[in-house]
Amino acid sequence: MSEENLKKTPLNAAHIALGGKMVDFGGWHMPVQYKAGTIAEHMATRTGCGLFDVSHMGEIHVDGPDAIPFVNSLTTNNVENLVDGQAHYSALTYENGTVVDDLLVYRFGAEKLFLVVNAGTQDKDWEWISSHKADFDVDLRHASVEYCQIAIQGPNALSILANLTDTDLDAIRYYHFTNGEVDGVPSIISRTGYTGEDGFEVYADAGEAEKLWNKMLEAGGYGDEGGILPCGLAARNTLRLEAAMSLYGHEISDEITPLEANLGWICKLKSEFIGRDALAAQKEAGLERKLVGFEMTDRGIARDGFDVYIDEQKLGVVTSGSPAPYLKKNIGLAFVPTEFAKIGQGIKIDVRGKMISAEIVPTPFYKRAD
Amino acid sequence: MANIPEDLRYSKDHEWVRVEGDVAVIGITDYAQDSMGDVVYVEMPNPGDNFNAHDAFGSVESVKAVSEIFTPVGGEVVEINEELNDSPESVNDDPYGDAWMVKIKMDNSGEADALLNAEEYSEFLQSEAD
Lengths: 370, 130
Hints:
The complex is a heterodimer.
Chain A: H1 12-17, E1 21-25, E2 28-33, H2 38-47, E3 50-53, E4 58-63, H3 67-74, E5 86-93, E6 99-109, E7 112-117, H4 122-131, E8 139-142, E9 147-153, H5 157-162, E10 177-182, E11 185-190, E12 199-205, H6 209-219, E13 229-230, H7 233-242, H8 276-285, E14 289-296, E15 307-310, E16 313-324, E17 329-337, E18 346-351, E19 354-361
Parallel strand pairs in A: 3-13
Antiparallel strand pairs in A: 1-2, 3-9, 4-7, 4-8, 5-6, 6-7, 9-12, 10-11, 11-12, 14-17, 14-19, 15-16, 15-18, 16-17, 18-19
Chain B: E1 9-10, E2 15-20, E3 23-28, H1 30-36, E4 39-43, E5 50-51, E6 56-62, E7 66-70, E8 75-80, H2 83-86, H3 90-93, E9 102-106, H4 110-113, H5 118-129
């Protein structure tokens, strides 16, 4: 696809001005890294602060008296457990229990929910969600183009963002959010992220994106030693992998159920939703395969799609594999038969024809100190 | 703009060759390292291995991806740069110096003469970008 046909976020020009190396990411023209490079960006997020343009994510408004029952009929987590100002991680599932997409569900009020879905899947998600409206009394609106979304992540995220807002950020608990202003711009300030660090995701009018982005870079001391760094998609991926967070199309997909991907904690099988019965049956029967974390014990790097061998038999597949810049190890996630899914189990990864040893380890690989 | 030293020869796979008598010193170009991003691992052949021109003799892994490296000339590997095992990042920092990868005793030094010169490689990069 030529560059002209790619979708652009409102920060496209800002990325190019910052020296972003632009790539086609699922039809979006996005920075894979900036001048500092992936390792520096990753480390900045772990030890200081990283700034991410995630405006390509999809936003869907669900308003009306049936907002909660409607979203509950489609998603695995129980929306009735949310209070105003709280969000949770959830999944849209097909009748067979496999995953349409993973998402965040925000509750603004009993009749006002806000869904944030993946960029590459948002058209499919919108089609899926709107086609199940049936008799539910809700208004649905696919509002992605109206919003920018900027993630400010890392141990210094709170203190940097505090320079730009009167909102008491400390009072926003993890997976909670509030309406506020950032540099005078009305924003949703959400204490969420995809890096394994403390931090915030800020949603605002798309037209304010560049101003907010530049203000955050300035407040974070971009260009100073130890200052904030803009981070590209490559660092976003390595950060989420160290934190063992799922990526749609890898750990979860329309061929994988949330239970297989260690996401039983978001499957509230006492509520009724599309796919519930299949998941309940799978849980009852026992899982045939499970997602595990592994660490390479020989030199070599596992990559997505590489085969996993146990006792010389091809028994699994790597869903995500990469060097882990903070941990300085080569790590990955893989599906293996449940009987082998135990800590310390030795496995081999077929790295371009060479069998390289690895070991199943606990996940997440990285957990921040509280 | 990528750095392209005048005194080297280049392949269209973005390797460089420095001819020293009948030995070719081989590495990857500044353009190649910049495209890959942070290099974390260089897989090299063993001394004594024999390759034909255009064979893959190893790979360079960045955080994001792996790229095979091809020898532009055929012959026997006489030395590899062991330093790259401990400091693969030198591929990013000094691709034409510290990060040479292998030395190959050429079967036919004519293969090196047939490679691109700096000007031709620069034009090739331009044409790739267009």
